Amino acid sequence: MGIGDKMKNAAESAKGKVKERTGDATDNEDLQAEGQADKTKADLKQAGEKAKDAFRE
């Protein structure tokens, strides 16, 4: 996995965490759900990249 991909996934995950916490703090369920979705999407991308790396070795 390239360092650029790692950075993008980490940034997307962090963005999701911020949205989730902001939604929780403001009782905005839509924002909270959107943040959880962003985090999950980033985690799945990260897992996919790790799987690709495992097959390359």
UniProtKB/TrEMBL annotation:
Annotated region described as Disordered, given as residue ranges: 1-57
Q: Record's Gene3D superfamilies?
A: YjbJ
Here the segments flagged for biased composition (Basic and acidic residues) are 1-24, 36-57
In what residue span(s) does the CsbD-like domain sit? 5-56
Family membership? Belongs to the UPF0337 (CsbD) family.
Q: What is the official name of this protein in its record? A: CsbD family protein
The taxonomy runs: Bacteria, Bacillati, Actinomycetota, Actinomycetes, Propionibacteriales
